Amino acid sequence: MRFRLTAFGLHLLGSACALTVVLGALYFGWYRWPGWYLSSVLHVVGIVVLVDVVIGPTLTLIVANPGKARRALTRDIAMIVTVQLAALIYGGVTLWSGRPLYYTFSADRLEFVQASDLDDAEIALARQRNPSLAPHWSSRPRWVWAPLPEDPREAMEIVNSNVLAGGKDVIDMPRYFKPWEQGLPRLRDQLARIDDIKYLSKAEKQSLRARLSAAGLPPDERNALVMWGGSRRLLAVFDPTTLRIRALLVPS
Fold first, then answer.
1. Distance set, CA 57 to CA 7, 50, 64, 90 (Å)
2. Model-level pTM?
3. Cα–Cα distance, 149 to 175 (Å, whole number)
4. Which residue has the higher pLDDT, 73 or 212?
5. Domain residue limits at 146
6. Is residue 97 helix, strand or coil?
């Protein structure tokens, strides 16, 4: 039994270290709050953790029989590690392709943009026309303003494509992005009282008001805006004077 436990412990330690390096790099580089919540990646992380930290070492505990031939034991553990590596690569690639790149303010809302939302043609255009805000492989999440282009024809094409044909929105076109600070006057005009936000239910509004009061933030000021990430929502609460974000709250 001691041999089995030693093999289990070593396997668990190695698996945990590999998982910590991969997930830690992705988390601290791209997925810090609110990225992990808006991207809904916990199910992917859960699968990887289950395979690499639970199932893998447990199978080693089962197959690590001291009476088994060394060659057979090596083969069995190699097969387990291969499956673990496949799960880790799957998780890493999935998280990398969906990594957060932008938090955008556009029109009347905040929206979350992942790497998978941007196609190669748009990225190439952004690097030509707007290199300072174009995405690169090492780009960290940035807050940007995503207004419609000033050319009315271009703006109408984007609106028609998005609304009528389900095409790309301006938040998927980094060639049009501008620095966050330039959009703050427009953002100020869109701030609303919690009670006036139509995307929140009555129960959610009551809960959010109570949480803001408990945090010492005024619940009756025009200081809030909804942030969208797919089907998930957050309430972004701003300081009405400086327009700095004071809180990002999950409606509940």
1. 8, 10, 10, 19
2. 0.87
3. 10
4. 212
5. 100-187
6. helix
* Residues 6+ positions from 16 with CB-CB distance below 8 Å: 53
Structure tokens at 242: 């400086």
Q: Which amino acid is at 30?
A: W
Residue 202: φ, ψ to 5°: -60, -45
Please give the span between the terminal C-alpha atoms of the chain, in angstroms, as a whole number. Answer: 48
Residues 6, 85 within the same domain: yes
* Cβ burial 152-164 (10 Å sphere, 16+ → b, else e): eeeeeebeeeeee
pLDDT of residue 63: 84
Gap between the Cα atoms of 87 and 246, Å rounded: 38
CB 15 within 8 A of CB 57: yes
CA distance 110 to 227: 4
The neighbouring-strand residues paired with 45 are: none
pLDDT tens-digit profile of 69-113?
888 888 988 999 999 999 999 999 999 999 999 999 998 889 999
| Domain end among 97, 120, 149 | 97
C-alpha 38/C-alpha 17 separation (Å) is 26
- Distance (Å, whole) CA 86 – CA 191: 46
Q: How many domains does the chain have?
A: 3
